[in-house]
Write a structure and sequence with these properties.
The protein is α+β, with helices and mostly antiparallel strands. The chain has two domains: 316 residues, Alpha-Beta Plaits (2-Layer Sandwich), CATH 3.30.70.270; 246 residues, 2-Layer Sandwich (Beta-Lactamase), CATH 3.30.450.20. The longest helix is centred in the N-terminal third of the chain and has 83 residues. Helix 3 packs antiparallel against helix 9, helix 11 crosses helix 12 and helix 12 packs across helix 13. It has 15 helices and 22 strands. The strands form five sheets. Strands 7, 8, 9, 10, 11 and 12 form a six-stranded antiparallel sheet that branches. Strands 14-13-17-16-15 form a five-stranded antiparallel sheet.
Length: 668
């Protein structure tokens, strides 16, 4: 059969047509592999898992069949494979879409592989003469070994004798173990690190809630303190107003003593003051009153003058005219006996009193405690900033949005006073228009959590790296073990000198093909090849030249095998064997003649041997239809007898086992 020509089709015979059809389909596939892997090419792997993958010296091309290497798509191979001959990287070429009108049974890219004709393929890297190539049958997952040619033209030889599904399954199992080990290690590391991240984030939420609860508790306590302070001021005002409304303002000295005594017994009060209906100072607890002082212009005075309510009022903070510091006025209206406006009684609360009360609480360098009045006016604050007292605190949202919904709660905000992001709690006084806001700076409050989290995540990351490194080391060990096993397997099944299968591989393949042929009813043929007068060649030219001769003859024999599933093997010494599953006697004879002619074309001199003066071979051919009671040894014995007959008849010829000639006529 010429390169590029499709093999003649044979019909299935026997009682197992499905199995025979599978055998023919596989044989066609293997034939395609041999024809596609043309001269000086090396197909490393052919695999099918709904799609075939062809790997050539580290370059991987994907297509529905081996057509990816055919002349039909040479541009894709040249474009995608250029410059990658020496690299180890994979290059993928996707299959073109199937043209409209192409039948699945025709030549479209979706046709079954064994129905697609093989054509010439573009050139690829050369096969190394000391190594074999491995492919997988797309039909039965059998391993195929592709051997380099040692000289001349022709395709790669195909060895179907390597391990079958069991060995391939073991290799796939080892690969899957390595893959799953890597996935497990990655998942373990990611899970461990992810768990630490999740726990750290949960602790962050817990820390924020803790901060909010702490600040809210403090805000409630300080709001109660502010409410109590205003309440004490209200008691002092009530007692003073009651005396004035009953006795009048005539006895100023008595009123002054009364007011000084009240302030002395209630340290929270800054001072007590009494103003008549015109705003003039009538009496006070201050040691000295400013001359001609008049408070008729104060907001609290105008409010009481206009409002007949006797309720205690907390006014806007003002500068004291007697001492000059910021005070918070708490005042009440005084009525004359006829009910008309008679004056105002005033208690002053120093703004510094509240800031000094708030100072001992540790809320961080950027934390703050703020006392708010009506309209979110800043009454007092810690840390102290007197320039802000009496102005807008920037916390109006608490009074206008949150406080109506709940008298206490938590709140996160960015301060307009210093631009610091804070979170904390607020609480309103029960009986006074006052609100206390306790807030901690978010950055400061979360600093301990951040330090602990960074330390834990660092330790978790280091642990993940260690586990990942250990996992990578284990995966690498698995892959090394796989490579060692693959090399040992190759050494166990390969002849080191010729690169062909060894005797062990031949025996295993013959046994396997014999059982398969017995099930499918297909024939099996065996060729035994012997180099004529090889001992004389060794004596005349030396052992190195003899080894070179053996390698050259092996390459010629491998090149003569053109069918898929056939096996070229070294039988022993200068003898070789060609196993041809599914071949009739006539087909085996033609292969034998092709092998003999291929050796003759080597044109290697042999002055002490055949009459031609060149290296030649004798071939014995035997074919059989295996049956339940037959054994492969019968086929070997018949081929050996035919080989010796060829030698007796003059060598350099092919002899067919006479006992099987009748079968050859029936099967052919």
């Amino acid at each position: 059969m010429q390169p590029g020509q499709p093999a003649p089709r044979r019909h299935a015979v026997g009682r197992r047509p499905v199995e025979a059809a599978r055998h023919q389909g596989e044989a066609a596939f293997l034939r395609q592999v041999g024809e596609v892997a043309g001269p000086q090419q090396r197909v490393l792997q052919v695999r099918r898992d709904d799609r075939e993958v062809v790997r050539i010296e580290g370059r991987e091309l994907q297509e529905v069949g081996l057509r990816v290497l055919h002349r039909r798509y040479p541009s894709a191979l040249a474009r995608r494979g250029a410059g990658r001959a020496g690299g180890g990287k994979s290059v993928r070429a996707r299959a073109p879409a199937r043209r409209p009108g192409r039948s699945r049974k025709g030549l479209g890219s979706d046709a079954p592989l064994w129905r697609q004709p093989a054509t010439d393929s573009p050139s690829c890297r050369r096969l190394r003469p000391d190594r074999r190539s491995v492919a997988f049958s797309a039909w039965s997952w059998r391993e195929i070994h592709l051997w380099p040619r040692h000289s001349g033209s022709g395709g790669a030889a195909i060895d179907g004798t390597a391990s079958d599904r069991g060995v391939v399954g073991d290799r796939r199992l080892r690969r899957s173990l390595a893959l799953w080990a890597a996935i497990f290690v990655c998942a373990l590391c990611c899970s461990f690190f992810g768990l630490e991240v999740w726990r750290a984030w949960s602790e962050r939420d817990t820390e924020i809630r803790r901060i909010e609860e702490t600040t809210l508790t403090l805000a409630r306590s300080l709001a109660q303190h502010a409410d109590d302070t205003v309440g004490i001021a209200g008691l002092a005002l009530g007692d003073l107003v009651e005396r004035v409304e009953a006795d009048g303002m005539g006895d100023r000295e008595r009123l002054t003593r009364l007011m000084v005594s009240a302030v002395a017994t209630m340290p929270r009060l800054g001072g007590l003051f009494l103003f008549d209906a015109e705003g003039r100072w009538m009496a006070s607890s201050a040691p000295a009153s400013p001359a001609n002082a008049n408070n008729g212009d104060r907001d609290y005075f105008r409010r009481h003058k206009a409002d007949p309510s006797p309720a205690v009022a907390v006014g806007q903070p003002v500068r004291s005219r007697s001492r000059g510091h910021w005070i918070i006025p708490v005042s009440r209206r005084i009525d004359a006996p006829d009910g008309s406006f008679a004056g105002v009684a005033l208690v002053t609360l120093a703004a510094s009193y509240f800031s000094d009360t708030y100072a001992p609480f540790q809320i961080g360098a950027k934390g703050s405690i703020t006392l708010l009045g009506e309209d979110a006016t800043l009454l007092s604050r810690q840390p102290v900033d007197e320039s802000r007292i009496g102005g807008d605190s920037g916390l109006g949202a608490i009074l206008h949005r949150h406080l109506p919904e709940a008298p206490t709660g938590t709140y996160a905000f960015v301060s307009t006073l210093d631009g610091v992001e804070r979170l904390g709690g607020y609480a309103g006084a029960a009986h006074a228009p006052l609100v206390v806001v306790v807030a901690a700076a978010r950055e400061e409050a979360l600093a301990p959590w951040r330090r602990d989290t960074l330390a834990r995540l660092g330790a978790a990351g280091l642990g993940s790296l260690l586990v990942g490194g250990l996992g990578a080391w284990l995966v690498r060990l698995i892959r090394r073990q796989e490579a060692v096993e693959a090399r040992l397997q190759a050494m166990a099944t390969t002849d080191g000198l010729t690169g062909l299968a060894n005797r062990r591989s031949l025996d295993a393949a013959l046994e396997r093909e014999w059982r398969r042929a017995a099930r499918s009813g297909a024939p099996v043929s065996l060729l035994l090849v012997d180099i004529d007068h090889f001992k004389a060649f060794n004596d005349a030219y030396g052992h190195p030249e003899g080894d070179a001769c053996l390698a050259a003859v092996a390459g010629a024999l491998a090149g003569a095998v053109r069918r898929g599933g056939d096996l070229a093997a070294r039988y022993g010494g200068e003898e070789f064997a060609l196993l041809l599953p599914g071949a009739t006697a006539e087909e085996a004879r033609r292969v034998a003649e092709a092998a003999r002619e291929a050796v003759a074309r080597l044109d290697r001199p042999h002055a002490h041997g055949p009459a031609s003066g060149r290296v030649s071979v004798s071939v014995g051919v035997a074919a059989a239809l295996p049956g339940p009671a037959s054994a492969p040894a019968l086929l070997v014995a018949a081929a050996d007898a035919a080989l010796y007959r060829a030698k007796r008849e003059g060598r350099d010829r092919v002899a067919l086992a006479p006992s099987l000639a009748g079968f050859a006529r029936r099967a052919g």
